[in-house]
Amino acid sequence: MPRLSATLDVDVPFFDVDAMDIVWHGHYVKYFELARCALLERIDYNYPQMKASGIEWPVVDLRIRYPRPARFNQRLQVRATLTDWESRLRIAYEVVDAESGARLTRGHTVQVPVDMASGKRLPHCPDALLTRLENVT
């Protein structure tokens, strides 16, 4: 299966910038989450479907690099790409300036499958996700 991704536009709101008029570093996690939800929607396995399948997917690792700052009212494109799904979900993110295409931020998250009933981590990707990934064109 080719890498699955989703891209969305975000206009930086005033309340996301700090005293230096740049996006406060913690808000990039919110932008990543918006893109992650768009990606999960593409395979019909967003948080409600995860919960219905009895599997929760806590984030166990988050990494971000900030080569350039984003600023108030700047239009960003945030792309989330599924890069690993065998025993975890690893999603890579890239934030670029929508006008120039210049990369501003990149990072990734790792989520692991946990059975909600037992609280135990699963050693492999659950069928609820694999079935959906197989049906993606």
Automatic annotation (TrEMBL):
It holds the Pfam family 4HBT_2. The keyword Lipoprotein does not apply. Keywords: Hydrolase. Its EC number is 3.1.2.-. GO terms for molecular function: hydrolase activity. The keyword tRNA processing does not apply. SUPFAM superfamilies: Thioesterase/thiol ester dehydrase-isomerase. InterPro entries: 4-hydroxybenzoyl-CoA_TE, HotDog_dom_sf, YbgC/YbaW. Belongs to the 4-hydroxybenzoyl-CoA thioesterase family. This is Acyl-CoA thioesterase. It comes from Larsenimonas suaedae. The lineage of its organism: Bacteria, Pseudomonadati, Pseudomonadota, Gammaproteobacteria, Oceanospirillales.
